[in-house]
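HUMAN: Spend a minute on the protein record below and explain its fold to me.
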Amino acid sequence: MNKTKVRLLYFAVVWTIVSIIPSSARESTDVGNWFWGNQIADAIEHRNSLFTNLFGTEATLTLSDLSRNARREAEAILSADSTTEPWLLLIYGVLRYLEGDNQAQQYLSRSLEYAADDPGTTWLLFTEFNRYHLPSLMEESLLQLEKQMFSAGAQSVPPISRQLLHYGTVSKLSGDYAGALNFYSWAHRFDRHEYESFLKNASLNGVRHPVATIRSLMEAIAVIRVSWPAQFSAFISFYRAFRTFLIIFLLMSATILGVKYLPLALHRPAHFYSVSVSPALRSILVTANLLSLIAFGIIPFLWVMMFLIWKHCSDTDRVFGISIIVILLLAPLDAAIVNRCRLTADTGGHAMQFSRTLYEGYSPTATSGPARKTVSSDTKSAVESFTEIVATMKKQDWTVAMARINSMPGSETDPFIADLKGICLFFRGSFAAAIGTFQQVLESHPSDPSAQFNLARCYIASNDATAGMELLKKAADAHPSLINSFIYDNDRHFSDTWPPLRQVLFPEYTPARFWKEIFLGPPGRASQLRQYWGYSFLGLPPLYSFFIFLVLTGALFFTGRVAAGNRKLRRLFSCKYCGRVLCRRCTSGILCQDCAGTTRSVSSQRDVEQVRERLVSVYGDRRSVRNMFFNLLYPGSGTLLSQQTPGLQTVVLLLSTFIYTYWFTVVGSSAWRWMTSTEKAILLLPPCCYHVFFIVRYLVVDVRKVPSIFTSISPGKGS
């Protein structure tokens, strides 16, 4: 039994981690804006037109859906033996494959051979091989596509990686776990900065292979540790979950405190209405007036509510009131962080342009054009300059790249620029100058892997193979994963003839520099922040709003201390029968007007006592219904409406907040798309159990007779 519990907990933890982290934040909706986008778009258009010409306007891409006669007619008019058109070879090969011909393999392989220089066609051929479940040709096409990626000097093609993750999901849901693992492995090879494939590997292995699961999670952590795109993606995911937690906690606390204290706080303002207005109508009108303030925004409404109820709150409930105030104080900071995330994740912004230029291959539409302007300044940022330099180097225009490097300030002290300068000198044949540049980098940054590797390449190119091999071995020993995999991939795809952009190792832009220079770089985006903040607080800018919030907090605490004694007098102004709030203007002795009128005509003391018990019981039932409603809406939070210890109230409210955060960020996330029914059931188990407990407790059990684990409703005097 204990092992079963451990396994369930293990499943829940792994899948929660996997679910809370969505796919990479680097998304692009325009196919022409990412690397190989135009090639794939052209290949799709060419393929569709060829299928249309061959099979008619109603043609289907799935040849197995055609009738046997249509397939034979198409096979008869094709001359596959003399063509170099990959799609004609593919169609002929597939038609022969559907007929069971063993010679079909040669035509399908030839279609790949004639697409060796076309990554768009190679990728579409892979999708066709996947359509007809040809694993050997799928592997061959992915290897060819990887070679094309390396030849272009790219490390990543994120759209292809995401599509491979989707294929892995489809394989997993169909029960092909081996195929899913293979797709996940290839997804990471086409994007070295994604970590979702490792998380999906972990969920796929589960408790059946705990060692493999732990290894996959550690590999995901390793990717996040060294990659700033991965760190940024993980930060967005976790911050979104944390922000959801705070918003839910704020709304739950404000709702419960409002229900508990607003009737008391609004009692005195209700007397501003004429005496001719009934007490019930006055309560409705003053409540409607307060709720109308929501039109100014939720933040102004919460501040007004806190000023109304603060002096009436008990010491226990003031803990939650302080939490609300702190969250309101942090609202401008939250807006600044979210605004930074939006601008950084913008596919047309400088950060994503730089990422795509550095880690992907050269694409005219993605790298030559300027990024969408986000800074109203004539000066060019360092990231923009980096993007232009790397894009020029990816075009192998070393002279222009060198001129741009020399024009950048700090090119002698910045290791990233110095590495790029050394690469340009290497390709221009200035080996001695390149050696001096890389040596300067290593003097200030001895562990720089690109400088170590490139310095070794310079020695080898200048016919000093002994020194070069020694440095290469030293670099491989210091960074075995990076250097060895780079050399292995080159030898596997290119043997001894490495393409130009694979002869050197481009420098890494470290995560520390990303957070300092890009994410937390020069502000210059105040207009964007003001636009995002908008009318959150009466149209005032976020900085002004923050200082106003500080003033309001000081005023709130000051008035709360002055009026703290009012809470002790509250029992003197509440009906002893029904608990309704009273004041000197509406009290009739110690009873409200309704209770006084009910008992005034009763002469017998025994009858008065019966009426009193009935009124007390009605008020107790009303409180029980109120608590039951809150326990069903926010499981367990009804405890805040009763007198309990502060620690227990805090634990229950935080637990309820976590459950709703779990629903919104995990159960309601995109994780459902790739999960099996068993995994979905495991994800649903914790929140369902929590909800069911309180539903059963408050719907089946008599709340007035059976003491609750969390609440103890004691109907009686007072409010």
About this structure: Residues 228-265 form the longest helix (38 residues). Confidence is low (pLDDT under 50) at residues 22-32, 367-378, 562-569, 702-719. The CA atoms of residues 104 and 518 lie 53 Å apart.
